[in-house]
Write a structure and sequence with these properties.
Radius of gyration: 18 Å
Distance between the termini: 47 Å
Number of strands: 9
Number of helices: 4
Number of domains: 3
Order of helices and strands: HEEEEHEEHEHEE
Largest sheet: 5 strands, mixed
Helix content: 10-25%
């Protein structure tokens, strides 16, 4: 933050207000930091670090709906590591392959690390791209049940617990 303005690109993903809020949370003993992966941060929910990728401290979340270690019902919330389904299912014609991972365009870290994190996410869902949820994907509304709330917000239903009825129908 103290570098000359001509170097501000390195700050495009940093909100200085977040740093102040983080300091306040730490002072109030309400901040927990992790180093690497953390299994079962809540039952069936794992955190995964993707250092030096989209940002220096990027991460993604694995949700094991059945709560089992070797889950058959795993979903990945990709955070900013995958913006759209095309990042994981892009036509690889440019290098003469059927499909290839394409890292997000705006990253302050290593594109190689982005690809490696994408591979790890895909392996967790047995390479079923539909189970990696890209947070910026407009096509979520087409891939999953969806509706617009009275406040104008889109609500997309990714999956339901056994016996539950749709909340968007």
């Amino acid at each position: 933050m103290s570098l000359p303005d001509r170097m501000r690109w390195m700050m495009v993903a940093v909100d200085p207000g977040d740093i102040v809020r983080g300091v306040d949370l730490a002072r109030d003993k309400r901040l927990v930091t992790i180093d690497g992966m953390m299994e079962d941060v809540l039952p069936g929910i794992d955190l995964h670090a993707a250092p030096d990728s989209h940002t220096w401290g990027s991460m993604w979340v694995t949700v094991r709906n059945d709560g089992k270690k070797d889950s058959q019902d795993t979903w990945v919330l990709a955070g900013d590591l995958v913006y759209q389904f095309d990042n994981i299912t892009n036509d690889g014609a440019v290098v003469d392959v059927d499909e290839m991972y394409t890292p997000v365009g705006l990253a302050v870290g290593s594109q190689t690390n982005l690809i490696l994190a994408t591979e790890e996410m895909m392996s967790q869902v047995d390479y079923e791209a539909r189970r990696v949820i890209p947070i910026h994907e407009e096509g979520l509304r087409d891939a999953f049940p969806s509706r617009i709330s009275k406040e104008g917000l889109r609500i997309t239903e990714i999956c339901l617990a056994d016996g539950e009825s749709s909340k968007v129908a």
